[in-house]
């Protein structure tokens, strides 16, 4: 069980931290989730009271260093934490943390923590954009802290813009991912993808048969969403082309939508122009009906219950191969996905190498699908082929949450780009 210290500073978004606490307590590989201790500021308690934090966390709550002096809590809490996440982190809290202040329990804990530290800022747009705040954010990142860019949306009152606290589910996902892969915190703090434009496709296309039916697949878009969150966390400018995905938009991304494979091809093609990395994580349909019926196809009125329906299908465009042909910047990295029904790892790799040669992309992410694997699940197992890897070697299997695997995929793409 991981020990998480949840810091809460005095902003209206403090109410969201209660939901974040619940998600952290109920998440993790262990059924019991994580052990979470809440350390609010005095101002935070004016928004959400101590009884709420104590009831949800199962731990006593205090804000100053004079409570339980014998246990030296400002040292012990920071030392024993596996992760610290401050949500919301107000402009004042960021300033005090950047200056190394220790005038309450939370800032004291921040100075003694040796584990990864995540700040989730929330404030009005003008405060977020102010040079002082940006300087403080830069200072914290330089010291190795992960500072999550705020979402855009409704703020206090009628105001709207960047400065909104990301949703608790998204913050809990980031926390779990950093716990699972400590190196991710370092990459996020360095912003190693800053300055790069990354295009990611996600979901599965629908090819209409008639006004109410379509040919599709079981892709949920979770892998593409995980890639988008990972790229934003590491500083990239991200465009996400979504095909029939019902998940909430990841914070900090430009989302474009498509329904059919041909629409996906058009949207990805436009977004890929000038992109540094393109990841085709979507599952486009290989075929579509030769014609769409203008009205709903009815069952036959014949007494023959075995009478079926014949469909004529035509092949859809190969989006990934088209991106390879259209590439003009040879530094652009193209990453494809191959979902195969392979019985053995050797068969999966053989199918993948054949597809990599046909498509001409730089990297191919291999999934063995079927029998409840991959589609719609939070975890997966992948193998990455291509790049400078020796083709005689068997690429290792990488298993874990899709959020963790997303960082592995981005690491591989960044490695290919660095070699050009």
Automatic annotation (TrEMBL):
* Catalytic reaction annotation: (R)-4'-phosphopantothenate + L-cysteine + CTP = N-[(R)-4-phosphopantothenoyl]-L-cysteine + CMP + diphosphate + H(+); N-[(R)-4-phosphopantothenoyl]-L-cysteine + H(+) = (R)-4'-phosphopantetheine + CO2
- Pfam families given in the database record: DFP, Flavoprotein
As recorded in UniProt, its EC number(s) are 4.1.1.36, 6.3.2.5
Q: Per the record, which residues fall in region Phosphopantothenoylcysteine decarboxylase?
A: 1-197
GO MF terms held by the record: FMN binding; metal ion binding; phosphopantothenate--cysteine ligase activity; phosphopantothenoylcysteine decarboxylase activity
Residues covered by the Flavoprotein domain: 3-172
Q: Would the keyword Magnesium be found if you checked this record's keyword annotation?
A: yes
User: Domain named DNA/pantothenate metabolism flavoprotein C-terminal: which ranges?
Assistant: 193-414
Flavoprotein is among the record's keywords: yes
Q: What does this protein do?
A: Catalyzes two sequential steps in the biosynthesis of coenzyme A. In the first step cysteine is conjugated to 4'-phosphopantothenate to form 4-phosphopantothenoylcysteine. In the second step the latter compound is decarboxylated to form 4'-phosphopantotheine. Catalyzes two steps in the biosynthesis of coenzyme A. In the first step cysteine is conjugated to 4'-phosphopantothenate to form 4-phosphopantothenoylcysteine, in the latter compound is decarboxylated to form 4'-phosphopantotheine.
Cited HAMAP family: CoaBC
- Under which name does UniProt file this protein? Coenzyme A biosynthesis bifunctional protein CoaBC
Q: Which organism is it from?
A: Microlunatus elymi
């Amino acid at each position: 069980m991981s020990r998480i210290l949840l810091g809460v500073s005095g902003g209206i978004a403090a109410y969201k931290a209660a939901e974040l606490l619940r998600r952290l307590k109920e998440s993790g590989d262990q059924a019991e989730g994580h052990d979470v201790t809440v350390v609010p500021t005095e101002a935070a308690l004016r928004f959400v009271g101590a009884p709420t934090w104590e009831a949800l966390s199962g731990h006593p709550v205090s804000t100053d260093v004079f409570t339980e002096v014998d246990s030296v809590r400002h040292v012990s809490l920071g030392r024993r934490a596996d992760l610290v996440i401050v949500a919301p982190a107000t402009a004042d809290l960021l300033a005090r943390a950047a200056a190394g202040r220790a005038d309450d329990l939370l800032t004291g804990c921040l100075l003694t923590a040796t584990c990864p530290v995540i700040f989730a800022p929330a404030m009005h747009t003008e405060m977020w954009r102010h040079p002082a705040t940006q300087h403080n954010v830069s200072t914290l990142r330089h010291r190795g802290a992960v500072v999550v860019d705020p979402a855009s949306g409704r703020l206090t009152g009628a105001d709207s813009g960047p400065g909104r606290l990301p949703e608790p589910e998204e913050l809990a996902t980031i926390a779990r991912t950093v716990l699972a892969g400590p190196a991710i915190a370092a990459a996020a703090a360095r912003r190693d993808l800053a300055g790069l434009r990354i295009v990611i496709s996600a979901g599965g296309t629908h090819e209409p048969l008639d006004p109410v039916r379509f040919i599709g697949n079981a892709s949920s878009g979770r892998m593409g969403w995980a890639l988008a969150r990972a790229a934003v966390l590491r500083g990239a400018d991200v465009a996400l082309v979504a095909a029939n995905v019902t998940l909430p938009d990841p914070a900090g991304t430009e989302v474009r939508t498509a329904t059919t494979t041909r629409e996906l091809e058009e949207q990805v093609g436009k977004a890929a122009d000038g992109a540094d990395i393109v990841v085709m994580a979507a599952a486009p349909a290989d075929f579509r009906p030769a014609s769409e019926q203008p009205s709903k196809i009815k069952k036959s009125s014949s007494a023959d219950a075995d009478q079926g329906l014949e469909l004529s299908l035509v092949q859809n465009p190969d989006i990934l191969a088209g991106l390879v042909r259209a590439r003009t910047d040879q530094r652009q990295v193209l990453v494809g996905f191959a979902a195969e029904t392979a019985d053995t790892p050797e068969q999966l790799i053989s199918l993948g190498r054949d597809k990599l040669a046909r498509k001409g992309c730089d990297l191919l992410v291999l999934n063995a699908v079927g029998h409840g694997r991959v589609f719609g699940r939070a975890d997966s197992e992948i193998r990455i082929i291509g790049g400078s890897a020796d083709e005689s070697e068997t690429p290792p299997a990488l298993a874990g949450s899709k959020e963790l695997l997303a960082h592995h995929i981005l690491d591989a793409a960044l490695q290919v780009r660095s070699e050009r």
